[in-house]
Amino acid sequence: SEMFIPEPEPELELEQDHEQETTPANVELEPPIKRRKKKSVVWEHFTIESVGPGCRRAYCKQCKQSFAYSTGSKVAGTSHLKRHIAKGTCPAVQRSQQQQQLITYGSVPAKMPTSDTPRRRFRTSNSAVPFLAFDADLCRHEIAKMIIMHDYPLHMVEHPGFLAFVRSLQPRFDMVSFNTVQGDCVATYLKEKHNIHKVFESLPGRVSLTLDLWSSSRTVGYMFVTGLFVDTDWKLHRKLLNVIMEPYPESDTAFSHSVAACLSDWNLDGKLFSVTVNQPLSDAAVDNLRALLSVKNPMVLDGQLLVGNCLARSLSSIVQETLASVHDVVKKVRDSVKYVKTSESREEKFVDLKDQLQVPTSTVLAIDDQTRWNTTYEMLVAASELKQVFSCLDTPDPDYKDAPTAEEWKRVETLCFFLKPLFDTASLLATSAAPTTNAFFHEAWKILFELSRSSASEDPFIGDLAKSMQEKFNRYWKGCSFVLAAGVIMDPRFKMKLVEFSFSKIYGDEAASYVKVVDDGIHELFQEYVTLPLPLTPAYAEEQNGAPIKTTAAVAAEAEPEGSKSSSNSNNNASGLMDFDAYIIETTSQLEKSELDRYLEESLLPRVQDFDVVGWWKINRMNYPTLSKMARDILSSPVCTVCPDSVFDTTGKEMDGYRCSLRPETVEALVCAKDWLTAEKRDSASATASPTVKME
Asked: Which parts of the sequence belong to the BED-type domain (predicted)?
């Protein structure tokens, strides 16, 4: 039998005798009894009433059933009262659950613990047990959302263990099948997609795309198409738009087919600005993409805004080839680190020796993960700083025999020197916030300049290493330098000045010709924005204090008498005066400086570290109504196709076997919906990382 230990008696409510005798004035009264506050949760559901001399009973507030409480000095405790409420034996509670389909959560547990459970567990600050309505549809939605957010397999809803778990939580929930949860996930995807469609409908600027091709064990490819754009509030967004299965990923039409499918799916014809791909393309594939860009964007540099390579993939490729060129030295360092880190006793000897030698570094050794090159770089840096300890380790530990030589340590230091700018640039890409295009020109030209200067070194190892890295980085620079330069030109802290300075360092006497190419290109692009149709021209209403900007034509139209407007319009059309109006605008603009020229001639802003360049253009869009639109599109043009946590990957992405077994539409729904559901958190982090700069 179960033994119950009575809890301490709660406060006894003292009853006053209605037939009290009058106390004489000269008789001193006894001090009043100090009452103790009831603490048990049961008193939220029971009241105590006297039923006779010295006898009290507890009455349930719900069903009015009475229970023994105290007789004379004996107290029954509260365990039986807790069981009445917590186990659901109260008829009133049962009826309420059946009628309203309510389930109980909160202060009273589903199953009452035994009496030896500490009383503290039942204390609560709630005045009543809260009830939450059971909603089967909501449960289905939450299961679908859980599967999407955590990449769980759809078939988990049919796993016996999961079925038992759900049944223990809520027996009345009818568990869904694979087909049902698949439909729920697709429904969640379609709901979120509808919201993004609304954003695109009101989008004031253009969209840039990134294409990241994933492989699979089934020889089909999956193209991840991501869109970057600046919204009406001048906030930069990065959203995964499509995951398209490509049956023949090696074909020259795979990338152009995915772009065309994305534009059709999202109604983005005429709104595409640039495309960035994750791998070098064949000439035929590049021609197909540029032809598509020129058709979809007939006035944006004739399809020339095609960034040939992802910066993260380019850096990863260069690092891997560089590490492979000195594989023997890297392996020797890795083996030394592994020797120390795989034994606690050896690591203790290493730390003791480091303390004895008083090596001034707090660097901690770690074995690298060869699928992420940043860990290899960090391992080499840490080992290099502790080279003195490694060189002397054979004294306290005779088993350590294969330490790198002094010459090999020198090569490690040289290698770290060349890898550092690549590591710094990749780290910028790996930030949670999506950095704008202007952030990478400075990083890229510094890499190229250091490699160019080092390639002339008299040291054969340094010269050969630098030449090899320079040759690989030049391939990236050749295809991306204009987009990177355009981004930094739109930064009011640098403009053309940084382009001129950096080109003089890189190209020497030939710098002027390269600067002219960039200058001509940026002016040509601006002229195309001037002539673009609504709503991307200056005539597009930008509101300030609720009033749109009025163009010269609009002002003239308002000044025209009401009665003559319709006849004047017809006369203009008939007599060809619209061409004359265009001529007036063109010749007038030739006499006046353009927005771009005015912007470039103005003084540079001070270089502050936390500068939100998109926010600056938002503030100054009234001064540069056309140029601000061009800046918005340029600054959102991506240089990287991968998400931040994949920047340092040394292997390409591969779709797992389970998702390959699903329908392509289901794969797209699962992957895209996860990106969209987590976008709010990501955008919040981006806003925190890039505060708006207020300019006086």
From this structure: 37-97
